[in-house]
Amino acid sequence: MAEQEVVEKAEEGVTTEEVKAELKAIKEAGKEAAKKERMYVKTLGAKREKEDAAPVFWVQRILCILGFFAMFFPEFSPSRISTELISENMSLFTSATSYGRLVEYCDRFFRKGYISKLTFILLFAGSLLLMLGVVAASVGTCASLGNRKLKKRAMRISLCGSIGVIAGLGGIILAYTQLLASSKADKIGVTFPMGIIIFGVFAVLNLLVTIIGMVKVPAPEAGDDCEMETPYKLFLMFLPFAILAFIFCYLPLYGWRYAFFNYKAGEALTADNFVGFQKFTYLFKNAATRNDLGRVIRNTLVMSGLGILTSWIPLAFAVFLTEIKNMKFRRFVQTFTTIPNFISWILVYAIAFALFSSEGLINNMALQADGTHKATMYLQNKTALTWLQMLGWGIWKGVGWSAIIYIAGISGIDRQLYEAATVDGAGRFQRIWHVTLPGLIPTYMVMLLMSVAGMLSNGLDQYLAFCNSANKSFIEVLDLYVYKLGIADGNISLSTVVGMAKSVISVALLFMANGISKAIRGENIV
Amino acid sequence: MSDIELMEKKDDELVSNVTDYESSSFEESQKKKKTKFVKVIDENGVEHLVPVKKKHAYTPGDIAFYIADYAFYIIFTLACLFPFYYLLISSISNPDAVAKGLVHFWPQVKSVADDGTVSYHLGITFQNFSGLISGASVLKAMLISVLRTILGTALMVIASAFVGYLMTKNEMWHKKFWYRFLVITMYFNAGLIPWYLNMSMLGLTNNFAAYIIPGIVAPYNIILVKTYIESIPGELEESAFMDGATHMTVFRKIIWPLSKPILATIAIFGAVGNWNSFQDSLILMDKSEGLWTLQHRLYIYLQGASDLESMAHDASAGNVLAAASDTNQRVLKYTISMVSIIPILAVYPFMQRYFEEGIMLGAVKG
Description:
The complex is a heterodimer.
Chain A: H1 2-12, H2 16-47, H3 54-70, H4 92-97, H5 99-102, H6 107-112, H7 117-143, H8 148-181, H9 185-188, H10 194-216, H11 230-250, H12 278-285, H13 287-309, H14 313-323, H15 327-338, H16 345-356, H17 361-369, H18 385-411, H19 415-423, H20 428-453, H21 461-466, H22 472-475, H23 478-488, H24 492-521
Helix pairs in contact in A: 1-2, 3-7, 3-10, 7-8, 8-10, 12-13, 13-18, 14-18, 15-18, 18-20, 19-20, 20-24, 23-24
Chain B: H1 2-22, H2 26-33, E1 37-41, E2 47-51, H3 60-91, H4 95-99, E3 108-112, E4 118-122, H5 127-134, H6 136-166, H7 175-187, H8 192-201, H9 209-212, H10 219-230, H11 234-242, H12 247-258, H13 260-276, H14 279-284, H15 294-314, H16 320-364
Antiparallel strand pairs in B: 1-2, 3-4
């Protein structure tokens, strides 16, 4: 409000110095108010009941976070008591939830009687108990955010959790001794995993902290209910989703470590096969991969470049569609041109196959018109025409849908502008050029910048569906290359390197696009 | 043609009305535009000057423009529709007729005369669909696709609604941090291989849960719901809290019912995404064919055909080899494709509004 007044004054003809001084005064007053507010909040915080034995609980919280996430890392798994029978990719979580995967490689040993099934059932039960213990301890830790009464209960749950972890470890150690006693202990590769010590330390520390907490937290007053302050309550409601997001969006980053190891399927990542940046340099030093990479990057950039060059098509589609004033016709066109956007690329390929394969509709009709016609292999194109085909399918699938945003943009343009233009004698194309297009340019710029930012991510589905031995060298884009290298050829390390470089460059591009948008339009696009 | 005329007329009415209204005086406008006016007396006895609707004289340029414009959109719409139509008529034709390449624009069925001569004529048959149902693998794939679509979408919508609601609560402990924690995930991903290794580390390979659990937290949808909930008047919530409601009650009784439009939008997008999704099936279900989705099954069928065709091509044996081994499968592919498309075609026209709202929401997210 105050600032507005100043601006008004400025319009009334007050000198700039005066206005500046006044603005400064207003700013300082605002700062003062903010300071006061901070102080107020601080005193409020001081007034809030001080948490009993806060350091103890903070230790416990950190402990439980570490223990909880350690369950998902294979390196910390206490259940991998055999290097030969249990995959190095098994985390405690997997061992405790899937008995089938635990005994995946055990069939032969079971049949020959080298080891008893009971050993593995014991191992599974121990892992499950351990996991439940960790979960219970974590739940207890969460509940310890509440008042005294809730804290007391939390302590009890936490205690049970610690005991569960210790019992689970006991089961695993028992299974371990049974394996050691087996006649083929060396063949089984019995090891004592680090995880047992790690979780043992966790259990003991947690037990200790819990007991201290139990002693230190004074008894709740009679008649107290279990309560928790709203901020913590809301946070705990969100926590399960935060954990899910962490596991599926952040945890994969941990897989980047494969880029620095010479990983072969079935082997653990150890200091022995750590190669540092060797895989990165190998990509460029090795002639075969260098050629592959060059070709793949060329295809990626060409496909994205073509996409960017044709990005005006949806805009034109929208502009000329809105020139038609018959609403029913427009609805009809919009409805049916947007449908292709909602079918998968596999189905698009099915359609391409139905129409353009050697026995598809087109070749059939040509054959019936001319008996000597030799089928044209549209889908097995060995030339750069493949690029245009891919572009064409992309446009067929996406143009109607991308146009919707522009159609909405056009309906948001002030009608009076068109009327004024008509009065001034502007024709149809002049109206489009001088009224419609300037109204749509901001939206178009955002779309353009987004497609520049996504330049390296063409997506996998389209190229995977359309790829075959003939058009391979023109269709392989980065995403498809990573898939083929990693999943089909099993070259995990190298494909992680490529994927990692792609991710990093993509983020850099996004920031760049955002920076440009900020500089030109003063708005963020992300 | 008459359609265009009618429309042109309407268009012109609009323009002439407005220009007259805007000019400073009627006399002037009459002189300038030569628009004729008639006097009309309304029920209160007041005289009005009303412009006479003049016959529109549209230029040849306009006519040419409209013809070209209409023609383009009609052709493009047909190009979008015809492939679906072609798959449909092929899937309801006799397999032999399709294999012989007799199905072009109408479905064909086969009839065998008494003397054994075979002829093909217009008609429809559902034998392909019944053949498909008897094939266990396709039926199983359909079941998996339907299950993952329903379960995955339902859980995603509930989670998005709930987290979206929580994200409007500024009093949450470190809310800003947690919101960013979610948003960042939209702009960054570790890549395909780390994703695969992570899923395998979590035991989600060859496991139906892999279709459902990773999709529960969808940051983009959470943002959409959050933005929508912020537009609901806060007083509703406040009064509920006054009456002693908990956050859960407020969510169930107030937020959930009021945010149904946005939930419908994300549900429909989620369902289409789940139905079309095929990467996870392809990469994660390498050892359990029983868990393949319909899209994956279709991909395998199509890929087989594509390999055959390439072989034929490479051997430069024309299409003999391909024709020999691939004809019986052809109709099967068309029919599976049709089965995969039908749910989307059936749902789309009714849900189009939600789809379009969806893209607009994405645009204004900012």
